[in-house]
Design goal:
A hairpin with a 5-residue loop joins strand 7 and strand 8. The chain starts with a helix and ends with a strand. It is built from one helix and eight strands, in the order αββββββββ. It is of the alpha+beta class.
């Protein structure tokens, strides 16, 4: 009987600890998720925009991956965990060379947070003159 009670107590503690661990979660809150460069020159070189975010959760936020929908757009993201309350940045660089006309590009950010995917969008028009 004592062995059963001990096992039951251990099981209850494990469930309580597991439930508490599940409550803690990272939350990536971006200041903005879209940015327009307006009109940019084709031969003016690459342009970049930095998307800032805050971990509003109570667990470390990990950016698992950030990928663009084409090779002309390159994201740079932090590889170290972002502690609760701390800020992070994702820099998105677009190369307008040989891409005249309007553009809309998406960077998909994958996290361990509440929102598993966040889509960051850049847009503008490349002027060939």
């Amino acid at each position: 009987m004592r062995k059963i009670l001990t096992m039951l107590l251990v099981a209850l503690v494990a469930v309580a600890v597991g439930a508490e661990a599940r409550k803690k979660q990272a939350v990536a809150k971006f200041d903005q998720t879209a940015y327009s460069f307006g009109t940019i020159p084709e031969k003016g070189g690459k342009v970049s925009h930095t998307f800032e975010f805050t971990n509003e959760g109570d667990a470390n936020l990990v950016i698992v991956d950030a990928s663009a929908d084409c090779g002309c757009t390159v994201p740079e993201y932090p590889t170290a965990p972002i502690a609760p309350g701390k800020k992070g940045k994702i820099k998105v660089t677009f190369n307008p060379l040989y891409r005249p006309g309007a553009f809309d590009k998406v960077v998909t950010v994958r996290t361990n947070g509440k929102q598993k995917k966040v889509r960051l969008k850049i847009s503008g028009t490349v002027n060939s003159n």
